[in-house]
Fold this sequence. Notes:
Elements: H1 10-27, E1 29-31, H2 34-42, E2 46-48, E3 53-55, H3 58-67, E4 72-75, E5 81-84, E6 90-92, E7 99-101, E8 108-109, H4 113-125, E9 132-133, H5 146-157, E10 162-164, H6 171-183, H7 186-191, E11 195-199, E12 206-207, H8 209-221, E13 225-227, E14 232-233, H9 241-262, E15 268-270, E16 275-278, E17 283-285, H10 290-305, E18 310-312, H11 323-339, E19 343-345, E20 349-350, E21 355-357, H12 358-376, H13 382-385, H14 387-393, H15 403-412, H16 424-429, H17 435-449, H18 457-473
Helix pairs in contact: 1-9, 3-9, 4-5, 5-6, 6-8, 6-18, 8-9, 9-10, 10-11, 11-12, 12-17
Amino acid sequence: MKPKLELLDREDILRIHWGSIRVLERVGIKVEHDEALKTLSNAGVEVDFRQKVARIPEYLVKEALSKAPSTITLYGRSGRALRLEGSNVYFSPGSAAFYYIDWRTGDFRRPKSSDLAELAILVDALENIHAQSTALVVSDVPEEICDRYRLYIVLKNSTKPVDTGAFTVEGIHDMRKMLSVVVGGDELLSKKPMATFAICPSPPLKWSKLIVQNLIDCAKYKLPVHIIPMPQFGATGPATLAGALVQHNAEFLSGLVLAQLISPGAPVIYGGSPSVFDMKHATSALGAPEVPLFVYAYTQIAKFYGLPSQAYLALSDSKIIDEQAALETAIGAVIAVLAGVNLVSGPGMLMSEDCQSLVKLVIDDEICGMALRIEHGIQINLDTLAEEVIEEVGPGGNFLKHKHTRDWFRKEQYFPKILDRRTRASWVEKGSKDTVDRAREVIEKILREHRPEQLPQDVERALDKVVIDIMKRHGLSELPLGPK
């Protein structure tokens, strides 16, 4: 039996849904993309081309929901697949961090290509981080090719599926070529996608030209996208969680409609990166308790629609790895598994979504493992009820020597790798190391010993050729860790 918690009832969900429909029909969505506006107009949407505002009717939302797939499967090149549906939960590192905490020195700085390569190798080895992400915006390559270069580094250093995104108009096309080379062709990529792409509307109720183009290109190629509305409660969204849900849902539905008009059946994940606007400090807080509460609500809406879900949780607003980081991350991870968020982006992140730390990522792997153990619940059957075992042991006995204990304790218990459960005397004897010290040891061991499965030589050459072509288009002769 798995733990279950329902935050919204059906009536609540319907009130939010119809509120979003009224916003779409009466207020509309600003779309800064002429082709998209024409597509919407041709489908029967009332479009003000001068103001670039589209008022989307309910029947198009209904049609879009009926066309979008309820299951999206992401495939790693090692064969393992993540099936995004129902209450399946998978974790990936938080993405697109502009800052990095060096795990060796503790320095706070901009990330480099070598940092991203180490992160990819680490994630490839971590048990409870199921997908990769292009987690760092590296500072040692030109900005105009950074989106594609990040994917290149991750593809060469891991077999896991990838959570990624493009920063440029041409990015989606090049990244598709890279994925196609690794997977084995365009047709196979459409059947067995290896990556999902982040698509973020601009709150409130606006889609930028770049992001709409990314959405159109992904839809045409049938590349999975997770649409990520980003309301800040009280700033770029209503202060009330219910009102922010209406806006969040309207923004998501508008993107879903456009994707399905471009390509019926386009794979779309219901995502989000909501935050509290802290009125005292004028900052965006993702570790606030209102955020997992909000995510829980929109995940229920996603399930009501029959769509896969995504969220930014298991991260922290803290600037360092401390009690705040552990508290906010753990709350987010537990809520994510109780809600059944299919893809959880966030482990490793500090400063909301601005900083990645490999030390925190290793600690978060432990937190995610514990949260997943809670999600697995309690098995109830004749063997687990253990009535005969209790009778055999009897009053005053113990269960240590019983075969039932040997058969079950590894199945029932989660065994931490970073947390310390020893006696104080044993802990002191082993060097009195804290959690950060032990996490650093894990990083060092993985980077020293773990060797991700390498790409076949012909595939690696083909991937390098795609990147070399990108370099030539931008007048680049070399890149750190790039093709020779």
